[in-house]
Q: What sequence folds into this?
């Protein structure tokens, strides 16, 4: 059976009033996730059906989650999925997805990349992830800082 790469765009919104806002908290922003998921199935139509089911499940999981500000997260699919069948067998250095777009000749590389990737998430990303993930990342960051600081003081 062939492999198919399916690309979907997911919009993640925060629902409810935020508690314990800090300087990283921003109002009036949502997050859009660009996902590519692989499916091994008999044909393009079956890949699309499997992707739609997987995406609904993925979005539903956000509804069971709160961010570090106590807000529920809600995810919704934007537009229709794009299905791509790789030409080569999967393996090291093999293309699994390709998307092409017409661009104005005057567009700079920075403008194109910015449009294709959006703004970097940085610290704001914690508004759109489960609190337990964000808290775990904070603990790991603090641990790395302690190790770095204690290692520097030993030398």
A:
């Amino acid at each position: 059976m062939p492999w198919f790469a399916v690309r979907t765009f997911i919009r993640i919104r925060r629902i409810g009033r935020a508690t314990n806002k800090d300087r990283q908290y921003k109002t009036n922003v949502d997050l859009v996730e660009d996902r590519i998921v692989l499916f091994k199935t008999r044909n393009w139509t079956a890949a699309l059906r499997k992707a739609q089911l997987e995406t609904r499940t993925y979005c539903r999981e956000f509804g069971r989650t709160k961010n570090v500000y106590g807000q529920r997260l809600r995810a919704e699919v934007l537009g229709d999925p794009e299905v791509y069948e790789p030409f080569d067998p999967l393996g090291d250095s093999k293309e699994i997805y390709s998307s092409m777009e017409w661009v104005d000749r005057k567009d700079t590389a920075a403008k194109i990349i910015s449009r294709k990737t959006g703004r970097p998430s940085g610290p704001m990303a914690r508004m759109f992830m489960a609190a337990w993930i964000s808290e775990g990342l904070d603990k790991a960051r603090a641990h790395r800082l302690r190790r770095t600081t204690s290692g520097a003081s030993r030398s």
Observations:
- Residues 24 and 60 are 26 Å apart (CA to CA).
- The chain has a mean pLDDT of 83.
- Residues 131-154 form the longest helix (24 residues).
- The beta strands are 3-15, 31-40, 72-84.
